[in-house]
Request: fold
Amino acid sequence: MMSLRNAALAKPQPKTESKSASLRDRLIETRALSTELASPLSDEDQVVQAMDDASPTKWHLAHTTWFFEAFVLKRFLPGFRVFDERYEYCFNSYYESVGPRHPRPKRGLLTRPSGEEVRTYRASVDEALDRLLDQALAPEAAELVELGINHEQQHQELLLTDILSLFASGPLKPAYRQAGPGVGGSEAAPLSFVSFDGGIFDVGHEGAAFAYDNEGPRHEVLLRPFKLATRCVTNEEWIEFIEDGGYRTPTLWLADGWNMVQSQDWQGPLYFEAAEGGYLQMSLNGFRPVDPAAPVTHVSYCEADAFARWAGYRLPTEFEWEVAAASVPLQGRTLGEGHLRPMPASPSVGLQQMFGDVWEWTGSAYLPYPGFKAAPGAVGEYNGKFMCNQFVLRGGSCATPDGHVRRTYRNFFYPHQRWQFMGLRLACEA
Amino acid sequence: MMSLRNAALAKPQPKTESKSASLRDRLIETRALSTELASPLSDEDQVVQAMDDASPTKWHLAHTTWFFEAFVLKRFLPGFRVFDERYEYCFNSYYESVGPRHPRPKRGLLTRPSGEEVRTYRASVDEALDRLLDQALAPEAAELVELGINHEQQHQELLLTDILSLFASGPLKPAYRQAGPGVGGSEAAPLSFVSFDGGIFDVGHEGAAFAYDNEGPRHEVLLRPFKLATRCVTNEEWIEFIEDGGYRTPTLWLADGWNMVQSQDWQGPLYFEAAEGGYLQMSLNGFRPVDPAAPVTHVSYCEADAFARWAGYRLPTEFEWEVAAASVPLQGRTLGEGHLRPMPASPSVGLQQMFGDVWEWTGSAYLPYPGFKAAPGAVGEYNGKFMCNQFVLRGGSCATPDGHVRRTYRNFFYPHQRWQFMGLRLACEA
Amino acid sequence: MMSLRNAALAKPQPKTESKSASLRDRLIETRALSTELASPLSDEDQVVQAMDDASPTKWHLAHTTWFFEAFVLKRFLPGFRVFDERYEYCFNSYYESVGPRHPRPKRGLLTRPSGEEVRTYRASVDEALDRLLDQALAPEAAELVELGINHEQQHQELLLTDILSLFASGPLKPAYRQAGPGVGGSEAAPLSFVSFDGGIFDVGHEGAAFAYDNEGPRHEVLLRPFKLATRCVTNEEWIEFIEDGGYRTPTLWLADGWNMVQSQDWQGPLYFEAAEGGYLQMSLNGFRPVDPAAPVTHVSYCEADAFARWAGYRLPTEFEWEVAAASVPLQGRTLGEGHLRPMPASPSVGLQQMFGDVWEWTGSAYLPYPGFKAAPGAVGEYNGKFMCNQFVLRGGSCATPDGHVRRTYRNFFYPHQRWQFMGLRLACEA
Amino acid sequence: MMSLRNAALAKPQPKTESKSASLRDRLIETRALSTELASPLSDEDQVVQAMDDASPTKWHLAHTTWFFEAFVLKRFLPGFRVFDERYEYCFNSYYESVGPRHPRPKRGLLTRPSGEEVRTYRASVDEALDRLLDQALAPEAAELVELGINHEQQHQELLLTDILSLFASGPLKPAYRQAGPGVGGSEAAPLSFVSFDGGIFDVGHEGAAFAYDNEGPRHEVLLRPFKLATRCVTNEEWIEFIEDGGYRTPTLWLADGWNMVQSQDWQGPLYFEAAEGGYLQMSLNGFRPVDPAAPVTHVSYCEADAFARWAGYRLPTEFEWEVAAASVPLQGRTLGEGHLRPMPASPSVGLQQMFGDVWEWTGSAYLPYPGFKAAPGAVGEYNGKFMCNQFVLRGGSCATPDGHVRRTYRNFFYPHQRWQFMGLRLACEA
Reply:
């Protein structure tokens, strides 16, 4: 099989945010990428669920397919008949409007339908999508295909982080893919900051290009002058925090965070293990020595917040981040780069790593923008109903499909969750 | 015993926010009020804890006393010796800096020290505070006494809501105090809205008067034009929500809220019970028919949010609320009124019920204001460490001691909690 | 108040199993003893429940009263009216036939009815019982009064072990009663064994005297020759087990026991704490140094079984115990002795400590005897429905009311429970 | 692939308890049968674990292999090297003496080693066993091979009941194997009883033939005259129990059973579902109408006990069962028959179904026989450490490998467990 890295090299470079790639091409590419991401995995690997938050690979492959079937094909392809009526129960994720569904913590019990049947399901739906796209597409249908593409890209990232949680759970700790030759041993650029003026800024998405509903309405925010670190916090800095007793000092922590430290016995980022002479961390490249210069990853909001307090800084708000991001090109080490883990910042001047490498926790609770209204119907459940108890992350990661992230993109997770590629960038008052 | 209502009548009327009442007078009054609030309760009533979130009355009485002992007397009264060294372990609430403490869910097991011993403890500390206040007080000491007064006022409110949770837990459903001669049968003023202009506003506390650290720094916020309901949502409106299937319609709910509805079998506000011909609700006046015109109370953030969505409105942000509150006098039906439950709005023009009756959920997550820094030492644990996963409530309730609440006051609870006097006021875009 | 010990001295010595004491006298004595046992406790102490298995003192006082009301007075006293109809819901323990009841883990929330009301309730029911016993009593009524006496005696023992669980749960560790002038420093008699022949033996209760239904029918059992230790296992022996790594050696344990060791972090008997120079254990006489010569107490079946395996012995069966007990007088250090904790065996020859001091775990599962049928109606729920997952203990303890235990008496608890006065005696094949 | 049924036909009929089959032949047959039982299952089916009590097929295949490696090959085959040192951690079940192991509830996460690797592991160990058996075998080695055969047979039964728990957990409810051409619609033989005399009987295993340690020592028991039903309780009888309100009548139940009924919402046997016009039950032949004449299966001890009480009978003791079993040939519908579900009794005279069809719950707690000593070392953990909280079942089931069960065989499960082929036979006093 062609490796992801090679695939990326062999294919024309993805033009991020290009409008030239047709919807059909992007649909085909996206559908193919899911299959490719699953290909290093056996059917066994694809069926199991390591924890309630994660889903099996096979479930991702089927659910993203069901999404097109339920929201696009059933409505817009005349004469379409669903592949198997029982799949809606199996592969609906959380759409209450659609009906009952298999309980989330039991997704890993679905040995039937088999991996082979799910691949056939995918092919069948792909073929139907192909027929649909042969026709002139109603605008609403096109929007839903676009949503389906972006939805599937999100699941591609989850597929990778979920398989990592599985591979980290057992004693054998296999690599999803072996790391490429060397890098490592690098030294991080020193911590420095870029200053930004205060003022009133427009934030949020506007316009015809695709964005999730939670990115709008575009609106004004008032910011005070602030400074933002040029790069993410590194493993080396995090290890200093550990060794300074960060995980044993309650006054550094939010109360909910300290509860997690104690009840879950947190002593470092997820998958970290102290070993002789250093630290190891499970990764998609296997269980490896931690690269001191690379961004720390797999830390929760609570940990990020405690670290920032220890360091004498704070997390940026999501709007500070977005305003700062306006000054840099929308590019970074996302999935197509093939690293599958965050890489050290280059020693250049100015903001680095704003896109790719790790999602960056912000200090902003995930809440609706002024004037936000969820879309009617089931797709309205996509984002809005999670606007409670979660925090916003920005910028994408090493597992985010190329072209998926935007400056206005709002990712969100609970403050105790750590299994995504989550890191942080420091900020402070100017 | 003189009833609270009578006490309020007999005493000179509390001058809210008056600076004329001396610190010493306010200390004495506050300490006396705690004792008075406990007086209708037997020692048995005072020792038990109905749920993890609640604390026993005796514990409140002792903890507020320990607060003065630990943070004021030990530091500022020469020669002071603590009443009993073991009490710090018993009655420290959550101050990690101070040391280990009795586990919160086991506060209700502390039959020793006895109620009588705790009363002696209070008297002993009161006497020492008296000696301290005989002297010229260092500014820091005065600030900490002020903090201790406000801290004790917060516990007075908790004492009442916690005893309600106890009295609601058993089959006998006693009244904390019988209701005064009836009001009831009232009709609510029709729902109407007041419009506010957008713009840049200053919010947060500034100046020499006491405020909690989480109310500052004062800073600018940018608001869009908005409308705010003239009164709180009533029981009658909430019953309409219930009877329209509000608790059975997942699309109205945040995902975390719907989980609560299902796992906790929520079918109405806390303490609500459907009965023939209407609804009853447990209250500090016993188990009573719900007053349709009174503000709904004991609803969670998730319920308030679902109601607002059902009604076609939203919750105000905490800053909208604060800006609107600038236009009305700082007065309302707080504890001194003696109702012990929220009362219907009067049919006047303009904003009603902004203070007192029920705490009003806002749509704002409880987060630090720009530039916020927690105070050093244990009192720095007072507010800042809870800035995660909670939402802000504004305005005080029928159980808030007179003079305690401010326009800038930020109360905060988890979005699933309901045992406080929590209600809501609707808002929308202008 | 007259102490228990003095009460025992002042009163005519209880004639165990004597038939001369009239039913009425024994009823009065039993009812009075409950009140006396509660008298060192404040109303606060009496209302709280330290764990699900335990009940508050007030609840014991009320439940035993309700038992007479529900099963005797309502049926046999013409014109009787219950004291308060709501009490059946409050104070029914587990009689499904009688109707719904307050949940067991919430017994400690019943601050109402108050202690004073429960005392009035007791007096009222006592007065009604007095009237009932003025008349000639139907045989069935007499049997139920007898059952009520024995039932209340069981609750007297629970009252003491439950209050110990409460007093052990807090930091102040008060004594229920101060110990009398010391014994202590004693040395245990060396471990020796008495041999018994095998054969067919009659076991179980028969005849007119009172016994619980689970003690019959009397039936034959076949025993092999066996040896029984002359005394119970001592603290000194148990400490040797601890210090030999008994709690860290999985092969000594039943699987369910090892699970408890690990999940509950058992490192010694309940209430044991290692201290400089020895061990302390919470007791009804307060937190005290362990007496090496006294029987170990507050050990579970799983611990007793592991100890026996470590020591190279086994637990006796309940029938071995019963056959051996036939050879010794039915007397021992039960409640009337006033020790309130197990005392060292005297250095005499032959079986010691068969009655009183500690209940002795046997290796017999608690199962029905051949031909056992539970009584019809609610009293049939008394014993039979617990014949699953529990083990039999024999012989009574230092907290068992005088005259309550019999040679055929079968006490039973789950194999992980430890809060009763539970110890063990070793046995082996002859 | 040759079906199990055909395999049984094609092969020489298994001679149960025959001594003529050599150890080697039986080893080969047993090892082959495991592979054959797994063969209808995909690698996906084989890796997943539906509940904590169950294990994945792959884990069974690997664990039984590890058993030979750890207990036989490492000790007795010179020069033997383990296949992969990490497998001991993965595939040790509960042998504390051997060392740490992968947590039981996470066995279903072991996607690595793969199914293919486990098959290679099996082949490698089979080859080593072959080499071992080429030599003259030390008696201890032969005993351990025999134990390994019997151990693997037990796991064959678990493999089937565990895969049933998996297939029942999802919405598709696949058959492990389609049922053969129908029987069904049958009518059960009327309930009748066989009488047995009382007396002293020898029970338990003795002699050179293989038996588990828990079957001995052989010893005398004293029985009273009793009657035993000629056949097992049928589905038809059980449905009568359901429809008479058996699951809603607390007085029929042991307290622990009633807790299960309420907390788990038991309304019938495991996998039972009420449907229009009757009941369906998931089985290894798929989701099928219940056969009224077939033995009820998948009922817990608590249910069996409640049913017997409702019917006016009781469960037999394990010794009554064993004594009765002496009168019938050691044969029945075990795995080789190929039914994979219990079948109706034939209308013959005398005891039917004593072996095969369903394991029969007895009223005997699983306890050691007089004089029982566990073997030293890890194999001593095989049975003895489970002698707490479990009940004995007798007679084997439709999933028990041919030749595995004995008259003295003691199976044991917790009284709430139901996922095995568990049924019951009624008994009463003569």
